[in-house]
């Protein structure tokens, strides 16, 4: 097993930490210890710990259930060590052990201990990867949703929280009362202006709890925006086995990622930060153009590729992007619908960026899953496509490709692909009533889903009609027939 005690037995080609994990103190609490965080923020932190050993990370999981309990037990058994395998498209691999995570707490098991860390003067940053949909913002009102049961519960029991909002705001309340500094709240999710969204969410919660506290947080905490990027597939049991065979390790929690990674961050830290530039973080005064390019090009084309790819039975992204019709559709989408309304940040050429995205998608070494990309499509469509759809609608432009993407999404939700196989993506946001819209025989019913809420204020009848037509074609003749109907 991979543990601190056994680190001495680890053999080449695995790279060991260049610091002694026992010397590391925590300076960061991170909510949502998923694979992306472990391959991204944790790696950047890992690179600075030798020089700055007070910036280790305490990971916090918020969900209940068997899976979460097992994951926590595995982290604890491995002293929170894990291996990261980085794969280049050429097939070259590099494997390193990350020791930046110095503890892992499952919040439902240890609520007070999570709060104690949040109140510790040693903690200066609270970061999070809680998914695009995790900020509890209602797309129609644009406000933090106070009506969800978990939020209501945390507002009624502020000292016994269950949500990230409840924990962070209670932690800040205790810091204020103890005369401590507020910490930086650093979102690392794929959202446009993730810091502003986090600000809206945490202040929205705090305002409902105690306006004076909200005011203190607004004045003292900071919420830097950032653009984060690294493709990090799901690690299935089979993949874990392959990774361990290649590394020679016995790691219950291996992570695999592409060799590319990028983090562009605003330098707004309430209580200090490590020298992240040393690890490759680009500090800029405004991340807007970087995040638009990343989200509207990479993430938007990921779902544009994978919704239809699932209908065609492709399991992996590299297979899907090698399908000429699917690739052409993504290229047309980017060059005709997205790039014309994007502003390139300094030093970025959008045509080259498109080529690099397509080449990253075609990296076969990672076997990234189409189902991973297509899951939680409801939140992803709103975050990744909205700006493009709004621009197209407002300019009265051809909406065929977005209509195709929406049609493919709605057909995919029905769970049967062109080979007659069933494959269900996970869509945590849909209620039973909305499920009925998905199964309805009326091709227009699905357009009422919240995935499409963010442009409901605009006249979308041409787009909606096209979605209905394309769904008919997909159902009667298949996804390839629908693709061939799109303008060349
Ligand atoms: C993907 C992202 O989940 C998704 O839809 O597009 O996870 C993507 O792999 C990362 O954002 C890459 O940085």
UniProtKB/TrEMBL annotation:
Pfam families: Mannitol_dh, Mannitol_dh_C. Keywords: Oxidoreductase. Residues 27-276 form the Mannitol dehydrogenase N-terminal domain. InterPro entries: 6-PGluconate_DH-like_C_sf (IPR008927), 6PGD_dom2 (IPR013328), Mannitol_DH (IPR000669), Mannitol_DH/Oxidoreductase (IPR050988), Mannitol_DH_C (IPR013118), Mannitol_DH_N (IPR013131), NAD(P)-bd_dom_sf (IPR036291). The keyword Oxidoreductase applies. Residues 286-444 form the Mannitol dehydrogenase C-terminal domain. PANTHER family: MANNITOL DEHYDROGENASE 2-RELATED, MANNITOL DEHYDROGENASE DSF1-RELATED. This is Mannitol dehydrogenase family protein.
